[in-house]
């Protein structure tokens, strides 16, 4: 299938220009309205006041992209674009409210799930079949109503949780979008490529202002919206009745933010007995790397590199038979587990002043 390269380039360039031009305007507006992030919490890394609203240009660039396609490339228009615009608008409004008034995490999660269930019924954003690890597909039936909204919500919160260092969230979204674009291009998935071209354009422009030292933050409005577009886009196209997600490939691409989210969920479960499940902490992956002595740029670039490696692995995974793909997933999981163990060992080594932690004893302590 011939790919519309001109459209992809125009979408990426347009998203870049709109974001690049509008970010300074919203930075000025945020300062005027005092919509800023003050370093009042111990888990925050920055030590000066930084304006929010940097994510609003993402939303405006997205609307501009959809209008451009409708006006000049109607043959590539999709019925799913309108539901995405409507739900995306509500996501941005919720994020703006959170940036200004600090919405509770539980209420935010419930609203997200409600909106994504709406997408399931209205926009057809669903994964009714997923890839079998040894080839073929598995029909999930009514479980699609649970899996599809949870998938989008998981990606949304993965991006949001990664927004803890200058340039981290935007850079990870760029790398993930580039990998999914490459995979979609080989499969002839035009709509997916359009969405990824948009994400690459706007995140690259935002990094001009957000890479350390950042002069503006995207805020929850930007992080939630980027995660929404990234997660929902993987559910738009279908091939032979199978959701293009097949869940395996994008999960590999999004390994870094998803792993951080899963570890965060585990920590919250441990705190649930104290009624602190929705309380944020300073134990995210990027925080732990900072505590080991890496600079912000070193942490961000390291996570970019890891994400790019997983994107390359996902690209390879997308082109091999099911059984071989399953082996690749097993190897990737083993490598990730090894990295987690090594990180914990290094942390323990650092806490003990450069000495290995003493072996645990089963003897009773008086």
Tags for this model:
366 residues, two-stranded antiparallel sheet, 4% strand, disordered C terminus
Description:
- The model is unreliable at 239-246 and 359-366 (pLDDT under 50).
- With 366 residues, the protein is mainly alpha-helical.
- It has a two-stranded antiparallel ribbon. A two-stranded antiparallel ribbon has the order 3-4. It has a two-stranded antiparallel sheet with strand order 5-6.
- Helix 2 (56-72) packs across helix 8, helix 5 packs across helix 10 (255-271) and helix 6 packs antiparallel against helix 7.
- A hairpin with a 5-residue loop joins strand 3 and strand 4 (137-139).
- It has one domain.
- It has helices at residues 5-33, 56-72, 81-101, 105-122, 144-162, 168-187, 190-210, 219-233, 248-253, 255-271, 285-291, 296-317, 322-351; strands at residues 36-37, 50-51, 129-131, 137-139, 238-239, 242-243.
Short overview:
With 366 residues, the chain is mainly alpha-helical. The protein has one domain.
In percent, how much strand structure appears in the residues? under 5%
Cα distance, first to last residue? Answer: 73 Å
Helix and strand sequence: HEEHHHEEHHHHEEHHHHH
Rounded Rg: 21 Å
Category from helices, strands and their pairing: mainly alpha
Q: Main sheet?
A: 2 strands, antiparallel
Instruction: Count helical runs.
Output: 13
Q: If you average the pLDDT, what whole number results?
A: 83
Helix content range of the residues, please? 55-70%
Total of domains: 1
Uncertain ranges: 239-246, 359-366
Shape: globular
With strands numbered from the N-terminus, the spatial order across the biggest sheet is: 1-2
Count of DSSP strands: 6
């Amino acid at each position: 299938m011939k790919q519309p390269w001109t459209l992809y380039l125009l979408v990426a360039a347009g998203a870049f220009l709109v974001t690049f031009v509008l970010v300074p305007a919203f930075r000025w507006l945020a300062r005027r309205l005092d919509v800023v992030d003050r370093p009042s919490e111990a888990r925050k890394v920055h030590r000066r006041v930084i304006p929010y609203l940097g994510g609003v240009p993402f939303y405006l660039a997205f609307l501009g992209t959809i209008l451009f396609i409708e006006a000049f490339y109607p043959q590539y228009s999709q019925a799913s674009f309108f539901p995405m615009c409507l739900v995306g608008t509500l996501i941005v409004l919720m994020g703006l409210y959170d940036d200004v008034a600090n919405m509770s995490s539980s209420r935010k999660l419930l609203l997200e799930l409600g909106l994504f269930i709406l997408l399931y019924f209205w926009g057809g954003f669903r994964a009714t079949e997923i890839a079998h690890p040894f080839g073929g597909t598995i029909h999930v039936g009514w479980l699609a109503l649970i899996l599809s909204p949870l998938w989008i919500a998981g990606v949304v919160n993965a991006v949001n949780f990664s927004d803890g260092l200058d340039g981290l969230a935007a850079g990870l979204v760029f790398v993930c979008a580039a990998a999914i674009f490459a995979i979609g291009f080989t499969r002839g998935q035009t709509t997916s490529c359009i969405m990824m071209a948009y994400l690459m354009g706007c995140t690259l422009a935002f990094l001009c202002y957000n890479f350390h030292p950042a002069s503006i933050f995207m805020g929850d409005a930007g992080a939630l919206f980027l995660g929404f577009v990234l997660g929902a886009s993987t559910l738009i196209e279908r091939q032979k009745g199978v959701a293009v997600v097949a869940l395996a490939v994008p999960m590999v691409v999004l390994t870094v933010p998803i792993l951080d989210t899963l570890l965060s969920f585990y920590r919250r479960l441990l705190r649930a007995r104290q009624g602190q499940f929705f309380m944020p902490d300073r134990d995210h992956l990027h925080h732990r790397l900072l505590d080991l002595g890496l600079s912000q740029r070193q942490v961000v670039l390291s996570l970019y590199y890891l994400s790019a490696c997983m994107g390359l692995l996902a690209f390879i995974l997308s082109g091999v038979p099911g059984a071989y793909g399953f082996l690749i997933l097993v190897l990737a999981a083993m490598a990730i587990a090894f990295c987690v163990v090594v990180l914990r060992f290094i942390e323990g080594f650092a806490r003990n002043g450069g000495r290995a932690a003493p072996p645990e004893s089963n003897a009773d302590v008086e």
